[in-house]
Amino acid sequence: MKKSVVMTLLILTCQIVLAQQKITGYKPDIESYVGFIQSQHQSPVEYLLRKYETHDVIVLGERDHRDITQYYFFEKLINTEEFYSQVSAIYTEVGSSNYNDTLNKVLLNSSLTEAEAAQQLIGVFRDISYQAFWDKYNCFYLWKTVFAFNKSHPDFPITIEMTSYPFDWDEIADTATCRAKTDEVEENYDRFMAGYFLKSFEAKQNTKRNKAFVIMNYPHSLRKWTSQKNITYSDMFGGYINEKLGDRVCYIIVNPYTLNYLPVANGKWDAAFKYCSFPPIGFDFSNSPFGKDTFDVWPLKTGILSFEELYDGIIFINPASECENMVGIPGFIDRKFGKEYLRRLKLRMYAIQRDDFKTKYRWEKASCNTLRKRTVYDDIQYRYGDDGSKNFDTIVNSWLLF
Fold first, then answer.
1. Average pLDDT over every residue of 313-326
2. How distant, in Å, are the alpha carbons of 1, 50, 201, 221, 313 from that of 254?
3. What is the pTM for the complete model shown?
4. Percentage of the chain with pLDDT > 90?
5. What angle do CA 252, 257, 259 make, to 5 degrees?
6. Helices of type H across 226-357
7. Inter-axis angle of helices 268-275 and 31-38, to 10 degrees?
8. Which of 102, 264, 323, 351 would be a feasible disulfide site paired with 179, CB 3.0-4.6 Å?
C-alpha cells in the first residue's frame, strides 16, 4: 500500500513538473498537425453553425458518456441565436422515447421555478433507463439547461427527443419479463433510434426551425464501420440515417481520447494541440493530417477506416486534462421512491448476473444521490496502476521538446 501511494505521488509530481516545463519545439512527426492547427480560426460554435448552411442534421459523436464539459459547450451552443432560430429539437441517445411527452411538458412549462422544474425532472429521470439508473449527471444537466433556455426564450421553444427503445418499469413484474424486455431494447437499439429520429425529423420539415441536432456516443454516431477483415457494417444509428438522408447529414466528433483512456493517434493530436496552447477550433477532416489517421477510439477493435471516412469534421473544445466525468443525481432516491428503485435494481442485476443481488437502501441512496467527479487521470490510475507507459501526458509529451 505504501509503495502504491509513493508511486502515485511520484507520477503526480512528474505531471506537475512536465506541466511547468516550457515547450521549446516539437518532433518533425507532428509538424503537419501543428501547421494545420495554426491555420484554423473557426471556433467550435461557428464551425457547427456553418455546417447548417449545407446540412439539415448534425450528428455529434460525444466522447465519454460521463464528461460534462461537452454539455457546458452544448449550453453555449443552445443559447446562440443562430442555433435556436433553426433548431427546435435536440435528439439524444439516452432515454426511453415513451417518456418524451412527460419530459417536454416540464421543459416547456414556464410557470415553474427552476427548483420546481428540477424536482419534476428528477421524477421523469427515474423512469427513462432500462438499466434502472442512468448515473451520468450531464444528461440531467442538459434537461435543466433546456428548461432555463425555454423560460428565457418563449418564442423559440426547444424540446428534447430521447430516441431509445420504449421501456416501462411498471410493466416489469418479474425477472423473466425484465430479461425479455431488456433484450428487446438491446436488440433493436440503433435501428429503433434511427426510425424514431427519421419519423420525428420528417414531421418537422414544414416548420421554420426544422434543423436537427443529435447527440450520440460511439459507435452509434458512425455512418459505417469496416473491420480488419474488410467487412463493412452500417447497422448503427449513423448508418441507418445515412442511408435515408445521405448528404443532408453532417457527422462531427468531439475531440476524443480512446476508450481505454489513452490519447488517439499515439498522442500526436494532443501534442500538436498542446504545442498550440489548446485552441478551441472546429475543422473538416478532409484535406487535414488528422483525417488521414486510422480511427482508433476503439483500441481493442481497430478497423481500417480513417477518421475522415467516418466523420466529416471535429470540434476541439478542451484537452482531456480538463474533462470532468460527473456521476450521481442529487435527489434521485428519496424514501418514497427507494423501495421501488431497489425492486428495479434487483430485477436488472438478476437479468445481468442471473443471481440475486444484495444491497441496502442506504448504500444505494448514498451512491445514486452523491455527485462525484473523476478525471481521465483518475481512470488511468485505477486501470493501469503504476504502469508509467500508460501515463497520458508522458505519451503526449514524447512528441514535444522541452
1. 97
2. 38, 16, 23, 11, 9
3. 0.93
4. 90
5. 105
6. 237-245, 268-275, 289-292, 307-310, 335-353
7. 50
8. 351
Backbone angles phi, psi at 264, to 5 degrees: -70, 160
* 230 alpha carbon, distance to own chain's centre: 28
- The residues spanned by each domain of the chain are 26-401
8 A C-beta contact, residue 37 and residue 107: no
* Gap between the Cα atoms of 66 and 62, Å rounded: 10
Say if CB 130 and CB 189 are below 8 A apart.
Answer: no
Query: Nearest Cα to 220, choosing from 233, 201, 239, 202?
Result: 239
Q: 361: part of which helix (H) or strand (E)? A: helix 361-369
Question: What number of CA atoms fall less than 13 Å from residue 164's CA on the CB side?
Answer: 23
Burial 203-218 (b: 16+ CB within 10 A, else e): ebeeeebbbbbbbbbb
**What is the distance between the alpha carbons of residues 248 and 232, in angstroms, rounded to a whole number?**
22
Do residues 248 and 55 make contact, with C-beta atoms less than 8 angstroms apart?
A: yes
Q: Which three cell numbers stand for residue 361?
A: 437502501
Whether the CB-CB separation of 225 and 232 falls below 8 Å is answered with yes
CA 222 – CA 234 distance, rounded (Å): 8
- Cα 286 to Cα 310: distance, rounded to the nearest angstrom: 11
Residue 138: how many other CB atoms lie within 10 Å: 25
**E strands present in 165-224:** 211-217
Euclidean distance between CA atoms 301 and 30, whole angstroms? 25
- Tens of pLDDT, residue by residue over 373-384, are 999 999 999 999
Nearest Cα residue to 197 out of 239, 145, 155, 156 = 239
Q: Specify the residue for cell string 428548461.
A: 147
